[in-house]
Design brief:
By secondary structure, the chain is mostly helical. The chain folds into two domains: 161 residues, Orthogonal Bundle (Ribonuclease iii, N-terminal Endonuclease Domain, Chain A), CATH 1.10.1520; 72 residues, 2-Layer Sandwich (Double Stranded RNA Binding Domain), CATH 3.30.160.20. Helix content is 58%, strand content 7%. The protein contains 15 helices and three strands. A three-stranded antiparallel β-sheet has the order 1-2-3, with helices on one face. The termini are far apart.
């Protein structure tokens, strides 16, 4: 009993001592979020769900924007010698001028006072589109002399399509400088703006520099692209027969080389095409017809020089960039 009394008294003494120590300690509770944050976040999420996201703002309407400096930086960033007046004109679309004119008239300004003394990019866009089409056609004929006219037109049409051109334009920062009535800039407006930039570069630096610009930014989009992804051929075997007839070569003979899983739901056939007892190409397929068509496509790629193991495109820089380095090395 005495031992129990001693234990209880010791525990009581320890508790009193701890209370005296804790009175001198100030505890501050820190919350990760304020109490009002939950209700505020809930209301903002509900408002966003009802009203939808806010309309996008063009970069020119955001703070810290100097249009003249941005245009100069665009020219410097691409290492091109643009005329600033022509480059600014290339970014002005007719839809922007029309929308700005209507906005000023809606504010009550007179017609003569609200007139904008700016030129649109219609002429530059037309000039750039003509030069781009001509340059890309000549480039395809030079690099693929065996390719027929339909193939050249398909490759050129793919490079100048709205999907490819707008992808390049957005990655070059042209969308932020484009003066358009809508935001974000529509694909057709961005496409015409890019062609206007090409026209401005042609008038500023000449055909040679513009050709290098197109080679570096548009032709490079062909890397990794298959020929028949751009050129739709309905009857590859018929086209192969036509090409071999032009070259006075024997007609192709399809033969089954090997097969696997013919009695399963996933069969695989390999068909080879022979001409004058020589193997032209072979291709796989789930059916004999599909394998024969794939073999014909492989043979056409070899005839046109667009096969996978072809020589890489020449994207080397101009000689003028190497000249100062050669002179500096030779002077040592």
């Amino acid at each position: 009993m005495a031992s129990g009394y001693i234990l209880n008294r010791g525990a009581l003494t320890l508790g009193i001592h701890c209370q005296r120590v804790y009175r001198n300690v100030t505890l501050s509770q820190v919350r990760e979020k304020k109490r009002w944050m939950k209700a505020y976040t809930f209301l903002m999420a509900k408002k966003l769900k009802l009203e939808g996201p806010p309309p996008p703002k063009p970069r020119s309407q955001k703070p810290h924007w100097d249009y003249h400096t941005e245009v100069q930086a665009f020219s410097t960033r691409l290492h091109e010698n643009f005329s600033l007046e022509l480059l600014k004109t290339a970014f002005i679309n007719p839809c922007y001028l029309k929308a700005e004119q209507e906005r000023r008239q809606g504010l009550g300004m007179e017609l003569e006072t609200s007139a904008l003394l700016l030129k649109n990019n219609i002429q530059l866009s037309a000039k750039g589109a003509v030069f781009t089409q001509s340059f890309l056609t000549d480039w395809c004929r030079t690099n693929f002399p065996s390719l027929p006219v339909e193939g050249v037109e398909s490759i050129t049409g793919h490079i100048t399509s709205a999907e490819v051109v707008t992808y390049v334009a957005r990655n070059l920062g042209i969308e932020d400088l484009t003066m358009s009535a809508e935001s974000p800039v529509p694909d057709d407006v961005l496409h015409s703006t890019f062609m206007a930039v090409i026209g401005a570069l042609q008038e500023s630096s000449g055909d040679e520099r513009t050709g290098f610009f197109l080679r570096d930014f548009l032709v490079t989009q062909l890397i990794g692209k298959d020929l028949f992804d751009m050129w739709t051929v309905v009857n590859p075997m018929g086209l192969l027969v036509e090409e071999l007839s032009k070259r006075n070569a024997p007609l192709p003979e399809p033969r089954l080389i090997r097969s696997a899983g013919t009695s399963t739901v996933l069969p695989l056939y390999f068909v080879g095409l022979y001409s004058d007892k020589k193997l032209l190409a072979q291709g796989p397929g789930e059916t004999l017809v599909a394998a024969e068509e794939e073999a014909a496509r492989v043979a056409l790629r070899k005839l046109y020089g667009y096969n996978e193991n072809r020589k890489p495109f020449d994207f080397s820089p101009q000689q003028m960039y190497h000249q100062p380095l050669i002179q500096s090395v030779s002077s040592l």
